[in-house]
Amino acid sequence: EYxxxxxQVYASPxxxxxxxxxxxxHVLDDHEISNDWSSNTTxxxxxxxxxxxxxxxxVNPPKAVQAGTRSTHRQDATWYEFIQGxxxxxxxxxxxxxSSNNAPFEEESKTMLGQDQLADFLAWLxxxxxxxxxxxxxxxxxxxxxxxPVNVKDTWGGFLFxxxxxxxxxxxxxARGTSVVILSGDRHEFAATKFPPPPxxxxxxxxxxxxxxxxxxxxxxxxxxxxxQVDSEDVKLHYIPSGNSKFGSFTIENIDGRSILQYxxxxxxxxxxxxxxxxPIVVEEATKPSGSFWDRFKFV
Length: 300
Known about the structure:
alpha/beta; single chain; 5 helices; PhoD-like_sf; 3-stranded antiparallel β-sheet
């Protein structure tokens, strides 16, 4: 049945023009398996994921580099990474390794990514990027924000301990001058959210991460608004629930020595909202000479 669904989609005469003009890369989500899937690799998982690899993953970018290595790609990974222009990308698998959605949200052992994927992801966030790469984009099939209280257990809002660990790694990356942007979907609504570091923490405000959650591409819109800011940790920037077709575009340019990202949201074929982000400029402190003034002189 899963193979039949893929064949029907790709055999559609409406698909060919789209596929010929746009490049597609893929992350795994629940509807590749079953709604709100949180049973990791048990049950129908194998029957569902086999066709997904055949029709989707086989054209994906390289598998992620294994944590603790410089260039060894992790064998059998279902998460991916690559660099395109000024952006380094990491594509998460949020379904294959997650704990039950029903486990307590703050439970320390609860995971969405599993041990190996989390290690590779944190290593990627910590990794210095080549010159000119000022952005790290994370593709997550479910929203990172906890501002969607309806069925929040299926989002990162239900995995708060692991989410906090990832946020701290994102702020570290931002503090080093590489801004983190999360791309997500799933909720059939649009929301832009900012994740600022805690006040008076070791991370500057400029290290904040941002999320653009945009969906659906071609499906029904949410029948009622469900996004709501619940605290100062996840800050609402903009929210539009309506629209059966939503997508966003990114333009990144170097302007006066700064890397500027512009996001534009399109809903039902019309431009509806745009915003800009700037990659932080990190000013390195001058190295202080050690010892006293007289230690700078050598006497022969």
